Amino acid sequence: MFKRFSKFISFLVIVFVVGFGIYAYKQAKAPSHLTGPSFFESLSDQLDIKENYPEPFRKLQDLLPEQKPESLTALEIIRLTNVERTKLDRVKLRENRLLTESAKLKLQDMFQLQYFEHISPDHKGPSDIIKSTGYEYIMVGENLAEGNFRSNQELLLGWMNSPGHRANIINAKYREIGVAVREGQFQGRKVWMAVQEFGRPLADCPRVDSSLKDDIQISESRTRNLQDTLTELNGQMQTAKAENNIDKYNSLVPQYNSLIVEANELVVKTKDLVAKYNAQVESFNACLK
Q: What is the DSSP string of 55-121?
């Protein structure tokens, strides 16, 4: 499941500037209420990533003595993967160096710690390794294989005959791939291991400028402060009026009106920021669909 970016829903009240108090008891009209932008839901800093990690594929039968296997290669596995995708009109996967690095790190880790699972004995999952390389993604998947294969084709056929691995290979949403293969000692046997890392990069979708969220929050804080100041000034003006203190009342009106102008400008600015942010969110969510 994807956790989509959520919009800011703003409830903005435009306040009105009134004339300066020139005559005694000419009171500036205070706004009924002044609110800054509030959050319906805040922007999630982390996507709820969709990950597909099918049960690792193990070839149990060893090769017969007369069978001469070919060496497995990452480039040929990528080529054969794209052959299968082309059959279903899927976009060919491009090799990504960070996903290739992730695949190599996973392969090295499995041989070193002698395990054959998506989760390592020290509880590192595929996404932990992928993130460590700096690869930013919307979705990822991983295929694993272990055994003595006669060819790259036999290895890929084994994955294609497994529903979970096949789902990764033909997934139309993936755009990039990294592959690593190596022969080594595993649990007392000399075997091949193979890793496929699939990904859709975060850059594949329009960027949401997170600094806009910060600007909106700052504007909200400033609006609240203005509201408090206006409320306090209005109280002082009402007291001056009740005490028939014309000079004090009229001295407060210019400050009060000036703050209303500032509040108006801030509300308009914040409204524009919210509109810009929401437009970016809509574009990002449309890309995820």
A: PPEE--SPPPTT--PPPP-HHHHHHHHHHHHHHTTPPPPEE-HHHHHHHHHHHHHHHHHT--SSS-T
Dist CA 100 CA 271 (whole Å): 44
Give the chain's length. Answer: 289
Radius of gyration of the chain measured on its C-alpha atoms: 31
Give me the helices (H) in 133-209, please: 152-160, 163-170
Are the beta carbons of 91 and 85 closer than 8 angstroms? Answer: yes
Pair 100, 74: CB distance under 8 Å: yes
Single-letter code of the amino acid located at 10: S
Which residue, among 15, 19, 21, 10, has the nearest Cα to 240 in the 3D structure?
A: 21
- What does the pLDDT average to over 9-26? 32
Q: For residue 34, which of 46, 17, 48 has the smallest C-alpha distance?
A: 17
Amino acid identity, position 197: E
Angle between helices 74-87 and 152-160 (to 10 degrees): 40
- DSSP state for residue 202 in the 8-state scheme: G
pLDDT in tens, 195-220: 999 999 988 988 888 899 899 999 98
